[in-house]
Amino acid sequence: MKGSTLKDVAREADVSVASASRVMNGIGTVTEDVRARVLEAAERLRYVPHWGARSLVTSRTNTVGLLLPDIYGEFFSEIIRGVDIAARARDLHLLVSGSHGDLAEAAAVIESMSGRVDGLLVMSPVASAGDLPVTVPLVTIGGRPDGSERCAIGVDNFAGACTAVRHLAANGCRRLAHISGPAENLDAQERFRGFAATASEVDPGAELRVREGDFTEEGGHRAMAALLDRADRPDGVFVANDMMAAGAILAIKEAGLAVPEDVAVIGFDDIPLARFTSPPLSTLRVGVCELGKQALEMLVSAIEAGDASEVEGIVISPQLVVRESSKRGTNTN
């Protein structure tokens, strides 16, 4: 069955098509009487706006793009969930794609979204906003949150890593180790920097025990197994994200050791999975879903302002969440 058109709505409301268009698109001015008649007619006729035609009138697509380095795993799922919740509340559509950490692929995805979105949310841990071919308002997620970048939302990874290491030390760990993210990842670099700075305070002059991971459970498992093979086996491990921490806990158990009695573990992000590992995982809470919501709200502000430089950036300070994986005694600081 053919749906109603804007012309049908105008006829039903006894107004011009131009007046009906102004009401349905929210542009221009009409009297309250005309607005009420058009909306009532649209409801009676079950009129559904044609978004393609509407975008020609408003110069808006009512769609935003979200570009992530990957779409696998709970972290990215939570980011998408947060953005989607905020977008739906504003009647916005969402296009999601992954760049797989490749700058050329990210550029290609952004180009493919050109003309289809009003703005872009981009998490590109290997690039800054200036490296991307963007012609619409852009909000970057992650990267270097020094507080100076406009229209960006980031995490204080360095401070979070320092908190994690100090927590392990306060719980009696002295042979500290770190399972890092990929070397080229900006967030991973800051978490490593925080680990290195604080570990040297706990164990001055000691060699840094570090294994690089890839932010997956398998990567964490491999890295932890390698650390356990060392003569100076660590008794406390700061893992750069919760996914790898879950793999690390499994590797410790497979080696016949106990968490946290033999090796204490702390992760980063506080994804939903962290509460359900065995034992439950201590971590640094970022509020991933909320981060996605905040990023979308920031993008809407940039779109409405028409100038991303007018929107101030946000830096999130991770909060320590203590669970059983790091409790070696009574100190839980």
Written overview of the protein:
With 333 residues, the protein is α/β, with parallel strands linked by helices. The protein folds into three domains: 6-58, lambda repressor-like DNA-binding domains (434 Repressor (Amino-terminal Domain), Orthogonal Bundle); 63-156 and 288-318, Rossmann fold (3-Layer(aba) Sandwich), CATH 3.40.50; 157-286 and 320-326, 3-Layer(aba) Sandwich (Rossmann fold), CATH 3.40.50.2300. It is built from eleven helices and twelve strands. The strands form three sheets. A six-stranded parallel beta sheet has the order 2-1-3-4-5-11, with helices on both faces. It is elongated, with a radius of gyration of 25 Å. The mean pLDDT is 86.
Please write out the topology.
Elements: H1 6-13, H2 17-25, H3 32-45, H4 51-58, E1 63-68, H5 74-89, E2 93-98, H6 103-113, E3 119-122, E4 138-141, E5 152-155, H7 157-170, E6 176-180, H8 186-202, E7 209-212, H9 217-228, E8 236-239, H10 242-254, E9 264-266, E10 283-285, H11 288-305, E11 314-316, E12 319-321
Parallel strand pairs: 1-2, 1-3, 3-4, 4-5, 5-11, 6-7, 6-8, 8-9
Antiparallel strand pairs: 10-12
